[in-house]
Amino acid sequence: MKLRVRGSSIRLRVTRTEVARLAAGEPVEERVPFGAGAALLYGIEPSTAAAVDARLEGAHVRVLAPSALLSSWATSADVGFEAKKDLGDGTTLTILVEKDWTCLTSRPGDEDIDTFPNPNTSC
Length: 123
What we know:
Layout (H helix, E strand, L loop, with lengths): L1 E5 L2 E6 L1 H8 L4 E8 L2 E10 L5 E5 L2 E7 H8 L5 E7 L5 E8 L24
Parallel strand pairs: 2-8, 4-6
Antiparallel strand pairs: 1-2, 3-4, 5-6, 7-8
Helix pairs in contact: 1-2
């Protein structure tokens, strides 16, 4: 899973295996160690709520998505889903969750392990 943060938006890109786990009702989480026991945690988990939500709990970024949404998304051709969270101060947080596609151009250090086929690839 990849996390991208830009302005007031967060984007998670999940692999095939992670999408399958989410559809099965399992959470998916990554850990970025910073040394001395400090780490950034981020992930997505199925929820019983009616809407997508995101929370920051200490150094843990949690995205919660309705189980039914995750199940239907996993078996569809949809790339992802998006939600807006009203932050109560006149601003919103955009939450994006997408299937991770194989890159069209390989880049050093980039991994295309367990990704979805890119529909822009010519066969």
